[in-house]
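Handout, section B. The chain below has 253 residues.
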Amino acid sequence: MHRLWKARKMRCLRWKGILAFIKSSEFKKLYLFFYGYIYFCMLVEKIDEFYREREPDKKRDYFYVSEVGDCPRKIFFKIKNAPKEPMEPRVNRIFHNGDHVHIRLMSVLYSLGLVTASEIEIPPDKLFHGRADAIVHINKENYVLEIKSMNPFIFEKRAMSKPDINHIMQLQLYMHYFNISKGIILVESKGNQELKEFIIQKDEKMIDDILSKFTELKEKIDNNELPPVPDKTGWDFDKCLYCVYRKTCRKAR
């Protein structure tokens, strides 16, 4: 009997301790922390869902100017709407941030009265479709403008000395289609918003090489002929590791 009474007393003391803890400020802090964490996780999931790719690549028989530096196999799979890994929401958020860089810098250029036109579609073409960021007028000359944002590390390493070759090729095509002899690549560091600009002259040989390369690629795609794996010698990193078509590409080899 004594043992039974003692056990009941111990249980009663434990419950009193639990109730006292629940009423304490420490418990309130702990509750708010976990409740806030759960709510935060719910928000993250909703935001990620917003940024997930939902629509497949639309059917097309042309290239985008922005693809000019992409792997030919990736372009082949994209146009053929091949199976792919879903794009990470984080990557789409990076692209979204890039859009805001464009909007912010363009608003300044408009305020300065330098913008002749913005978001201009290239003339109708069977090989390429695309839209240049702007045409600006400076010192009585027109320039095709391309705005790019860049990782701080890459910005310090490369952009301070020379522009990305892929950006140059895009700009060359825009200069070709708009028949403008000069262009500007304006680069902003994502880390500290430092700016760097590069004046680019129209290069007819580079333009001819690009058009020839993509004419050949279009013939391969039309004939359902998969391009070979590209030479990776000039790559800064192995893009295949982050490609959404990497599994499809490996199977196709």
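Note. DSSP finds eight helices and seven strands in the chain. Compare this with the example in section A.
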